[in-house]
Amino acid sequence: MVQRQKLLLGASVRRLGSVPTGPSTTKTAKRIPKAALHQSSTTPKQYYRAYSQLHRSGQLKACASALRRVYDRVEATSALKRRAGDRLALLLCQDPSLRQPNELQRLLVEGGYAVRLSDAVLRYPLDAPKTSIQKQSDRPPAGTAHAVDDALPLPMLRKLQVAFGADSTFWKGHTYRCGASPFFSYVHRLDEPPRCSLDRVIKRLQKHAAEAFPLVKAATRAEWWAHCRPHHTGHQLHFDSDDEGRGGVRHPIASCVLYLSGGVGGPTLITEQHAASRPPRLAAAGWAVHPHENRAVIFNGSLLHAVIPGRGSPTADDETGGRGALKRRVSLMVAFWSSIRERPGEVPASARPFPYEAASSPANDFGDGGGILSARNSWPRLFDWPPGEDEGGEGGLLHRSNAASTTSTSKPASNAFWRVEPIWEPVSKHGDVKLPMSMPAYEQCFQGF
């Protein structure tokens, strides 16, 4: 199976306390009375559930209060204490105004951490640096990362926003829950004519990728997957790899992220660290870029990268990201490979062949009232619109007379990046840990998400 290897420099697959939230987890974000957080009868688990709800509604001060009560009331060996400590430490890293004296240091030391993601990473600027103050040396060097704005024609983008919208059958058909679902992806051939609309999308992204990574032009396969993340949810540092590195580590030529929503979630972080770096050391620097609707970010497939949890509150209201507490950071990822083995199977998993027959077949009634079986059968049809609708043709979202104004005029967006340095900071309260340092144990690296 072709899978993104969720590794921190070769460590085993692991998530540090991912919050299992998905597109349909919560329909409303009710405000919890503050008095409820101070009742002596409230249990640690109730406080933790309150934290999750408060977080979705942006009540960060109350979040910190709820997490402190969990952390202080449960045993040191409790998994709940570990989760609460990590969540609280992340809140304090991203918003110093919530900190109590020496609190962050104490949480990280008691958690056994030697290093943590730096303030430059977790407290990223909410607005990208202005072009006028950027230096050429702050931009990613050639062969590292590249960005394109207005990557797709607007009608094609709108089709994808419907297909991957927060309430789409795509997510139900894969029983998707952000941070909890097993990884799944689909493989398409690039050496044959397009067979569905998603093939045409991938071809356009391949063209953008080849401008920065010429070897992508000769790629024979593309593997894609998608995510629909709540604003405060991130994705730990990892490498994209084939079959999680089993049988030898292989990386794609390049990977591409297409943002289908904007103003929701944190930036993508791409570090300078390669999987084959010798001797292995923690990344010293990298580059970040904010999610912006219809922006494509392409980067070297062997680089360590992550999604940073969103700070504050999301700013966008759109059909894909949702509204209020339901807003989502929606993205489509495509990895370009010189060769890759497809792995057929009945249930969603990595490197499945794309179900072309289901995409063009009529709906089947599974008698489950529009449940998972029906969704699993119907979602491929989301990618079966006619070629003439890619740019607003007859029968599409826009009439032909309007097509000229909606055709993508893609343009490089290298100024969207800013340099991030350092990536890591030492935790030692005595300051006796110096960076850069050789590779610490995975459990000693605090990412907080």
Automatic annotation (TrEMBL):
Superkingdom to which the source organism belongs: Eukaryota
Biased amino acid composition, Low complexity: 401-413
Ranges for region Disordered: 383-413
Protein name: Uncharacterized protein
Natural source organism: Chrysotila carterae
